[in-house]
Amino acid sequence: MLPLIAWLSALWLSPLLRLTRALEGAVLSYRDGDFSLNLAPDGPRELALLTRLHAELGLALREQRQHLAQRELLLDTVVQNTPVALVLTAPSERIAIANLAARQLLGDGRSLTGLSFAQVIADLPEALREALSSDADRLFAMTLADGSEETFHYSTRSFRLQGQPHRLRLLRRMTRELSRAEVATWKRVIRVLSHELNNSLAPISSLAHSGAELAKRGDTERLRQVLASIGERASHLHGFLAGYARFAKLPSPRREPVAWPAFLDHLATLGEFRLEGALPERPGWFDPAQIEQALLNLIKNAHESGSNPGEVVLRVQAHGAELHLEVLDRGPGMSEAVLSQALLPFYSTKRADTGSAGGTGLGLALAREIAEAHDGRIALANRRRGGLRVSLRLPLPATAPSTPAEPR
């Protein structure tokens, strides 16, 4: 009986043993990245169900691997054919990935993978070598091998890949984009200047003709009115051109400690606003004349938005290492399209026939230029219950200045 029992047991266990060996082989294949192995259903119903589930798992893994391979191929194609030069360096500063643009720019077309990044840039032109050695984004110009001038934008980012620090460096040619932007800006300037000059010169020409006729007839009373109108239009035109000259010739800021009470009292004589909140204990550190001009432009814009004069608010707050100067109103605010363009020079939503130089589109642009000259920035945002918030954010010195100056 014992041999018979052993034979029957082996017969009953043989499908399980075969399946166990097959599953072991399949798992080893999966570990090696081979998902092509399929198991044929065999044995009792429970074992057949297990093999069918295993087959479905293998199919899912094969589809996922194929999908990942397609995505990797697509990503590699995009990276290799993008006009932006891309270099990825590993923790040892050896190049892990360099696309075609990077190989052409840095290595005359040869492969850079595995090379030391420091050795690759050692023989490059000085401007390019300094940019690639920097940890900050920047624009720079250099002369190429064919003698042409090219402007590049360099950016770099650090990140961790599989627990190891890596650095990605990007170089983008900007000459064409900058040239198009420059041409577009000049066209916009010419349109604005032509429009404003025509608005002033056409009435001056007509009034001059009328004045000549009145002089012939001896009508001195009306002649004085005509000459006064000509002087008014000429004065407006002079102020318009002076505004453009101030924007084009903005001097470097002369930073100095500024006492808040005296500075704000003088600003209040130039534009109406309501001061909200307590003033910072530390004095300001900026060019008082330039910041006063920037705030005055923002306050005038707030009044011209249609806001109630009593709702034009100025806030002065210190946030860590930054000073926030905020001008708030309750006008209609700005659409997303206008917000994205409002800080550009010569962009204005005001009517050109209002007779105000503010319609030249230089108010916000000048405020932005002043903020950036102080190593700061300007931010625009719509308020929840209507209106606009314009914030000048200026850096504060590490140590508080001791002798606040009187406003100029």
UniProtKB/TrEMBL annotation:
Residues 192-398 form the Histidine kinase domain. It is an enzyme of class 2 (transferase). GO terms for molecular function: ATP binding; phosphorelay sensor kinase activity. InterPro entries: HATPase_C_sf, HATPase_dom, His_kinase_dom, HisK_dim/P_sf, PAS-like_dom_sf, Sig_transdc_His_kin-like_C. Pfam families: HATPase_c. The keyword Nucleotide-binding applies. It comes from the Bacteria. It comes from Roseateles puraquae. Gene3D superfamilies: Histidine kinase-like ATPase, C-terminal domain, PAS domain. PANTHER family: HISTIDINE KINASE (PTHR43065:SF51), SENSOR HISTIDINE KINASE (PTHR43065). Keywords: ATP-binding, Nucleotide-binding. It catalyses: ATP + protein L-histidine = ADP + protein N-phospho-L-histidine. This is histidine kinase. Its EC number is 2.7.13.3. The keyword Iron-sulfur does not apply. PROSITE patterns: HIS_KIN (PS50109). The lineage of its organism: Bacteria, Pseudomonadati, Pseudomonadota, Betaproteobacteria, Burkholderiales.
